[in-house]
Each structure stands twice: as structure tokens, then as C-alpha cells.
Amino acid sequence: MSALPRAAELGLIACAVCGQVCRAVPGDPRLDGDSVGDAMACPRCGSTLRRRKPQSYARTWALLIAAFIMYIPANVLPIMRTASLNDIDDNTIISGVVELWVKGSPDLAIIVFTASIVVPMLKFLALGTLLVSSWRGSGWARVQRAKLYRLVELIGYWSMLDVFVVALLTALVRFSVLSLVEPLPGVIFFGLTVVLTMLAAMSFDPRLIWDGKDTDD
Amino acid sequence: MTDDNSIERAAPGDGELPQPMVRRRRVNASLIWLVPALAALVGLSLVINNWLQAGPQITISFQSAEGLDAGKTPVKYKNVVIGRVNKIHLSGDRSHVLVNVALEKSAEGFATRDTRFWVVRPRIGLGGVSGIDTLLSGAFIGADVGDSTEYEDDFKGLELPPSVNHGAPGRSFTLHSDDLGSLDIGSPVYYRRIQVGRVASYELDKDGKGVLLHIFVDGPNDKFVTRSARFWNASGVDVSIGANGLKLNTQSLATVLAGGVAFQDPPGPHDSTPAPEDNAYQLFGDQTTAMAPPDGAPHYIRMRFEQSVRGLAVDAPVEFLGINIGKVASVRLDYDEKTQRFPVLVGAVVYPQRLGAAYDKLEALAKAHGENPDLSQLMGHLVEHGLRAQARTGNLLTGQLYVALDFIPKTPKVAFDPAAKPLTIPTVTGSFDKLQEQMAGIVDKLDKVPFDSIGQNLDQTLVGLNRTLKQVNGQTLPALSDTLHGVQRTMGTANETLAGDSPLQQNLGATLEQLQRMARSLRVLTDYLGGHPEALVRGRQADPKPAEPKPVTTPAALSPAQGSKP
């Protein structure tokens, strides 16, 4: 079965905002968004017309790398200080998980571990895989990869769990001498990591998965 | 709207699709790479910052890691956190723990050779409570930095907090003592019962024959430690029953419990310039010995007593004319073959320096005479002049004896060997023994009194007396009784004679009356003769008529006058 034609092959481009379909010269670099110079705009709503998200690979890569860099201090630096009567405790993400596990809340430990360690790592891996495979134009498991992308977008927000925990505790636990919870710089880096991975996921154009060589047949 | 509609309507037709507008791109550079660059920059700055902030890593060894917590326990200097414990692990031979501490960059100066580290834990002792705050905050490692600038990263932690911080105002001194007593690190040092310092550390002498104590006296009170200051152990209750009676000495209740050192200047003239740092002193056992004049070199003397010295104990005082100059060191029995007796050898330590000026004078005199100013020589002279040792009773209640060196008048001369070692002082019997001797002498003399003959004579005398008394009773006394009767009679007669109603009395009264009448007549006669001396010749003449009374104004007044006329 021969491949169905793509919009670009037919010289068509749809406005991402109002859905207006325009006729465009196939392969016009001004529609790729990567070109230097002029850009095309929707004749109806005036928003920029693009075949794919502009500089999707570069942006995703850049944001992903930035997120990864931020992920290092997020894990190394302590994210939270809990000071109780006789004890000041600075916890990094991992030490917090370990403490939860040791102190008998393995369920909570698993949740925090999943949200703070597994999910971000998963996002790095997933986005990296998507980027590399799409860039190489691989036709391998395109449907699964598309699902993976949707998953990555979906779970993005939930990675903020740790930040929420710290923010909530900081706001709630303020009994000065008796006990105190303070955010430490690690949480900022962790937040940045989550935001950057979300941005990376957003800047990835899933249509790129379907570009390249067709190996369906 | 109409445009839209027209477009939509035009849509179905192929080729009627609108062309996109062309718009100038304002920015075309790929700025997105700034994000990872920025992230990298932040990460890098973190790393650099961390690297710059990181101070030296040091290792401190402790006996135990009690209270220490890796990653938490801070290292503090003057309650400022200068580092944190990184890691705790056992040493290779498991004898102690090695604590890895990451010092802060600003605390680099603490990684020097003479910095001291110790664990501050709550300590409750008799001297007070310290580190109470660590009950809540947990133990921490205290640090005290020294002067050294030599880098060092391997330390041996102190088990006890140092009692003196480096650079604290004040001075430290060294005390020599026979034993530690109840003193400990941190024991107070008192001056006039005010705490001015504490014991910093102690150690055994190198030869093990004493204890070396290091004390620290806080400024500004360290100026009271003079060159001639005397230190004594003020701890405990000092109860002693000696020849001087019962003595009880304490400093304060705290020192009784926890021990302490006190110091003061000796009375009298002394060098009161403040002592230099680390000046060494002797630590005396009590205040009395501390305040005693300096003993100087001890001299050993020996005395040989021929009588029992029950009550003479080791440490009993040796007095010279009432001044304590030493103490008995040993009391031993000897055996004399010749006399078959057991003399007692008493060894004593004397400090001639305690005689003070007297000894100095003696010395000077000996020198002036070109003699060896040695104690043995001096003693030789004194013995010549009658110096003898005597065991005397110091306390009648307890029977304690002391040795008195005194000049005994009229003692027989004895041979004295000034070269003998130890010097042997001739003795005389003690006062109590002397008393016994005197009593014996009295008894002897009493024995010589001829009580028998005295009794016989007395008996004879009494027999004679008895006879005499019988004679008196039988003869003399009845005669006397008769005589007394006679006397009584005589007295009765006399009484009767002299009684108021006796005839004698009445006669006497009549006689006296007659005599009185006669005297009156005589007076009348003399009066008449005085007026009329011619009567002696002519005899008595008739009396002249009385003169006519002068007429009176009233007959009433006249008649009584007529009437009154004889």
C-alpha cells in the first residue's frame, strides 16, 4: 500500500491557531521556521505558519540538556531542612526517600522516589529516545513512540510533587523553636528541572516521529 | 467576516487556497541554546562556589563517637559553626574513631598544629554543669585555635574540654605535689576563698615520684600569684589528732566535695612581685604547712631514748624551745648487748631554716669564727651548752608525746660526734619519767622515816598523858569544885549586902540624909556670919522690922500683900 500524501507533499499548510489551510510551495524554507529571513503568516489570523514546530530538535535538545544539568544540583544539594527540637536535618531527595523508607513509610518512599527520581529520569530517557529516533528518521515503533510522547507530556506536571511537598511543609510547619521546615536551594534546581523537561516536551513536535522514511510498508 | 466567508467558500476549489503572507522575521538566531548554556553556567558556578567554599578536610580521632553524627554534628568555635562532621569511621586497629570534618573556607586557620578539638556533651559534675545546651541540640565538637600557622590535618581529640581557652587572660603555673589528692581537671583554685582559676591538667613526674599540676589563674587575679605565694591543697576535711589536740580544717563545702587548691602570700615580709608564667611551686598538704616559713634542706637527726616512748608516733612534732622544727620520721627498737636493754632509736627530720633569724645568726657567727657553718658543728656547740632531746607529753588527754630539744641545766656532759651520720642528739629522760623518778625519790625518803619508833614513843607519851588526865580527874577537879562552891557563897553574901532593901543600904541612906541636913545648917550659919560677922561677938540680934508698905491704890491689891506678910 502506497503511503498517503502528507500536507507538505500536497503544498498545503494548516494554521495551527485557526485551522486555515493555505497553499504553500512545497519545501519552502520559510515554512520550516528554521530559515533565516522571512516567515509565512496565516492570511486569516496572522499567526505564523509552520510545517513543524520551529527548531524543534534544537530547542528540545537544548532544554533537555539544561534540565539534565539542573538535575544534578537538584539531587546533590539538599532540598529541605527540617529542624526539630534536638536535631537539624538537611535532606536531599535521595536521603529523604531513604529516610522515609527506613522510618517505615515505604509507600510514601516509593511515591516520592517515583515522582522525583523515576519520572524525571524517564522523561530524559523518553525524550532522548524520541529525539534520536526521530532525528534519524527511524520508522521503528512509531505508534508506541507517539504514545510515549503523550505519556511524557501527561506526567510532566506530576514531577512537581517534591516541590509541592517542600512548599506545603514550609508553609505549614513553622513552630519556630519546636520544629521548622525550610526550603533549601536544591528545590529550586529540582523545580527548574521539572519546568525545563516540560518545556522540552512541549517544544518537541510529535509529527517529527512520522517524518522521514516510511517503513510501514 | 465576509472575507472569511469568501475564503471558506472559495476553499472547495482547487487552487483557490490563499497564499500565506510573508512577514519579516525579527529574530532569527537560535537563542534557545542560551538556556543550556545558562544552566551549565549555573551548574559550573555552583561547582566553583562549592570548591571555593570548601575548607580543609581534617581528621580528628576520639575514643568514642558518642553523640556524633555524620553530616550533622557541627564544629564550633565560640559557638560559631566552622565546620561539620562528614564521616565517622573506625581506625584500623579499632581502638578509636576517626571523625572526618569538613572545615569551612573561612576556618582554614583551624587546620593548624596546635588547634584542639573536643566533644562538648552535657557534663554534670560537682564543679558545675556544662554543655547543658547540648542536651537539646546534640553534641558538637568544640575547637580552640592556637598560635601555630603550621598546617595540620590530623588531630587527636581531647576527651575532656580544655579548662583554659587559648589566649584567655591569665597565667598558668606549675605545682609539685606528692599525690593528686582529690584534685581533678577543673578543680577550683581559690584566693581568699574566691575562685580565681582552676586546675588545667596534671601528669606524673618523669620519675614517678610526684605529681605535676598545671593550674590556670584568670586575669586580672593572676597578679596575686606572687613569687613567694604558697599553694596548698584545700580539699577535703582535715581532721588530725596530734600532740596539739584535735584539729579540723576545711576550705568550703564545694572543695570538701570536689577538691581545690588555695594560695596566699605568707605572712611577714615577702617578695610580692607577680610571678612569671609557668612559675613552679610546691603544693602543700594544708594551710599550716604552707604558711610555715620555708623549710630549707631537711636534716636527719637521731635520738636514743633509754625509756619507753609510748605515745611517740611518726610525724610527732620535734620542737626546739617550743618552735616546731621538724617531725619524727621513725621509731625503732635497738638492743644493747652491754646493758641488756632495749633503747629506742628515734629518727627525725628537722628543718633548721625554721628557726629563721636565729639560725642565720648562728651561721653567720660560725662563719665569722672561721668554722664550718654546718648543722652538725652548730649542734655540737649547742650540745656543749646543754642541748638535749627529751620526749615530753604534749597532750595529757591522749598521752601523745613530742620530742623537745631544750637546754637542760646541769646535765652531765656527753660525748658528741659531729661527724656522725645521722647526727645523734643526746637525750635526757622525759618530763613524765622525771616525775616518776622524783616520786620514787620521795617514796625512798619516806621509807627512811622510823615510823615504828615514832609510834612507840607516841604510845608511851599517850600512856603518860592518860595517867596525868586520871590524876586531874580524881584530885584536882573535886577540889576545884569545892573552891567554886565557896566562891558562890561569897558571891551570895555580897549580893545580899548590896541588895536595895538591906539594912546597910537603909543606914547608909539615913546617914546621908543627916549629913545633908547638917550641911544645910552649916550653910545657913555661914550665910548669917557673912552678913553679920559681929554676931560672933554680940550674938544674934533680932531681925529689923520690915518697912511700912507704901499706900496702894486699891484695897484689893493691898490685902493679899498684908496677908503674905509673916
Give a description of the structure:
The complex is a heterodimer of chains A (217) and B (566). Chain A has seven helices and six strands; from the N terminus they run βββαββααααβαα. A three-stranded antiparallel sheet of chain A has the order 5-4-6. In chain A, strands 1-2 form a two-stranded antiparallel sheet. Chain A starts with 11 loop residues before the first strand and ends in a 7-residue tail after the last helix. Chain A has helices at 56-76, 93-102, 106-135, 142-155, 161-172, 185-203, 207-210, and strands spanning 12-14, 21-23, 38-41, 80-84, 87-91, 179-183. In chain A, β4 (80-84) and β5 (87-91) form a beta hairpin. Chain A is 51% helix and 12% strand. Chain A has 217 residues and is mainly alpha-helical. Chain B has twelve helices and 27 strands. The longest helix of chain B has 48 residues, at 451-498. In chain B, the strands form five sheets. In chain B, strands 26-20-23-22-21-25-24-27 form an eight-stranded mixed sheet, with helices on one face. Chain B has a seven-stranded mixed sheet with strand order 6-9-3-4-5-2-10. Chain B has a seven-stranded mixed β-barrel with strand order 11-14-13-12-18-15-19. The interface between A and B is large, with 44 and 32 residues. β3 of chain A pairs antiparallel with β1 of chain B.
What is the molecular shape of chain A? elongated
Strand order of the largest sheet of chain A: 5-4-6
Cα end-to-end separation of chain B: 207 Å
Number of strands of chain A: 6
Strand fraction band of chain B? 25-35%
Give helix % range of chain A. 40-55%
Q: What's the number of helices of chain A?
A: 7
Low-confidence stretches of chain A: none
Helicity of chain B, as a percent range? 25-40%
Tally of helical segments of chain B: 12
Biggest interface goes to:
A-B, 44 and 32 residues
Annotation, overall tally of beta strands of chain B: 27
Radius of gyration of chain B: 63 Å
Structural class of chain B: alpha/beta
Q: What structural class should be given to the helix and strand makeup of chain A?
A: mainly alpha
Unreliable parts of chain B: 1-13, 557-566
